[in-house]
Amino acid sequence: MALCDHEEVDTRLLIHLKDALLNDCTNCLVRTVDTDVQVILLGKFHYLMTLCQDISVWVAFGAGNNFTYYHINAIYNDLGREKSLALLVFQSFTGCDTTSAFFGHGKKTAWEAWNCFEDVTLAFTSMALHPFTEVTLDADHFKLLERFTVVMYDKFSELEDLSEARRELFCQKGKTMKTIPPTQDALLQHSKQAAYQAGVWCTSDQTEMKAPSPHDWGWILDEETNSWVPAWNTLPVSSQACSKLVISGCKSADGCGARCACKKARWKCTELCSGQCKK
Question: Exposure winner among 26, 178, 191, 197, fewest CB in 10 A?
Fold first, then answer.
């Protein structure tokens, strides 16, 4: 086998499977307890078939009473090439070993949202076919991911803007802060992390990935532990950024004086302050 620079066992398995197929093996069994491995096999199955048309891949999954066998060929034929490929990005976006999941929304909820908003498949497949695709607020695939996130939290919503969806769920539907979607900025960081992990999986058939630095993909290097930690957002924390409501009743024609509540707090006067105070 050629030298491999993969750091994850999940992707190294594909290199071993590829080597087996190139050496005339057709029936292969992979033993794992990790769902990510099944997703990688499904997402790269179209590639494996180019190496061997008669390939038959089985997965021995789980342990104890939860042990079972899955036939990757059958699942792939049922999902189809496009959805199997899109599954790589879907898995990383909705939560895996290295990316966070959405609070209170597991794979079942995400799968139902996918069935309700099938247009997001275009974003998933595009990111899978073009590994390490840059994710920006203006990117078409991010807009589809934003809409998909809205549907996950409210499948009846027709909103596309995450901020509007948060406002509607919180103000009109009585949802708590824990049960509304993340902010657009937080979703952007999450999407970058998901795109990076999906990029690693999508290039798992290559012995040398040459993956870019995680720094530009929603990760921050912790110098104390020398490990990468997720960047949750780039905006300031709301409790620190939003000033408390201060109302000043300054009457002086010269504007705020030294005893002005706003001036003491070093905040600008609001519309609730008196007319003289705002001068």
Answer: 178
Q: Which residues make beta-bridge pairs with 28?
A: 57
Could you tell me the two tokens for 154? 């409210």
Render 64-87 in DSSP notation, one character per residue: GGG-EEEEHHHHHHHH-HHHHHHH
Give me the pLDDT at residue 271, please.
52
Copy the structure tokens of residue 33: 């307890």
Residue spans of beta strands (DSSP E) within the chain: 27-32, 56-61, 68-71, 219-222, 227-230
- Could you state, in order of their start, the residue ranges of all structural domains in the chain? 9-218, 241-279
* 149: nearest Cα among 100, 97, 184: 184
CA dihedral 195→201→203→205, nearest 10 degrees, is -170
Question: What's the rounded Cα separation, in Å, for the pair 46 and 51?
Answer: 9
Residue 57 pairs in a beta bridge with 28
Q: Under a CB-based contact definition with an 8 Å cutoff, are residues 182 and 150 in contact?
A: no
Pick from 176, 194, 79: which is nearest to 135 by CA?
Answer: 194
Contacts of 85 (CB under 8 A, 6+ apart): 43, 46, 124, 125, 128, 129
